[in-house]
Amino acid sequence: KAGVTQTPRYLIKTRGQQVTLSCSPISGHRSVSWYQQTPGQGLQFLFEYFSETQRNKGNFPGRFSGRQFSNSRSEMNVSTLELGDSALYLCASSPSTSGGYNEQFFGPGTRLTVL
Amino acid sequence: DAKTTQPNSMESNEEEPVHLPCNHSTISGTDYIHWYRQLPSQGPEYVIHGLTSNVNNRMASLAIAEDRKSSTLILHRATLRDAAVYYCILREVNNDMRFGAGTRLTVKP
Predict the structure, then answer these.
(1) Rounded CA gap, B51 and B64, in Å?
(2) Is A115 helix (H, G, I), strand (E, B) or coil?
(3) Residue A89 CB-density burial (10 A; 0-12 exposed, 13-18 middle, 19+ buried)
(4) Residue A100's pLDDT is what?
(5) Do B43 and A90 touch (CB under 8 A)?
(6) Per the CB < 8 Å rule, is A101 touching B87?
(7) In Å, how far from its chain's centre is CA A100?
């Protein structure tokens, strides 16, 4: 099976712009989670989608949003970019959302730089 | 949120076993203990998970204390490719994963 893919891999934007990142989960996986990784804050949970519905949300401002399509592909959007949004954005997929035992499969990430 | 505590860094010699500790004194009865690792320039990779009993897989072993307030990830023979940041995570029933700072493992040849 193909792994989790994320596009684009690298992105450079300027402050105030918006950006959309894409994630294609492993075939058959219905849960997609997003994380932000920075040197200062480490890996932080953004949100999780399952069957096109947001199931969980981390502590991020409303500028961070996401959605999931019927084929389980997911996008996240960041509006009005700030310098502090520069980070590695990771997507992870999982077969389901129930229980605490499911492992997550991570993609390689999208490196976003805000100038 | 239940929290985990890990040493910032550890060193090991190649071909020797490595024991990576994790404290989680506020764990709840339904929290699964997960371990992930992140190699340089890659996304995190699942290593192992357990609930109450010790677990083994092809990558590692997980030893869970009887009171579940601590656990240890065991790499039986460290290789240079095992150099990574290892995260111990308590996975809640609602599937949320909260990463801590992890332990940076250095493997010396």
Answers:
(1) 8
(2) coil
(3) buried
(4) 66
(5) yes
(6) no
(7) 20
Residue-averaged pLDDT of chain A: 93
Dist CA B58 CA A88 (whole Å): 29
Cis amide bond preceding A8, omega within 30: yes
Burial class (CB in 10 A: 0-12, 13-18, 19+), B86: buried
**Alpha helices (runs of H) in B1-109, residue ranges in sequence order:** none
Q: Please say whether the dihedral angle defined by the alpha carbons of residues A57, A60, A62 and A68, taken in this order, is positive or negative.
A: negative
> Do B43 and A101 make contact, defined as CB atoms within 8 angstroms?
no
Residues A17-28 pLDDT 10s: 999 999 999 999
**B-chain residues near A105 (CB < 8 A):** 46
Long-range pairs, A6-12, Cβ under 8 A, ≥24:
A6/A89, A6/A90, A6/A91, A6/A107, A6/A108, A6/A109, A6/A110, A7/A110, A8/A110, A9/A108, A9/A109, A9/A110, A9/A111, A10/A110, A10/A111, A10/A113, A11/A110, A11/A111, A11/A112, A11/A113, A12/A112, A12/A113, A12/A114, A12/A115
For residue B72, give the H/E element and its range.
strand B70-75
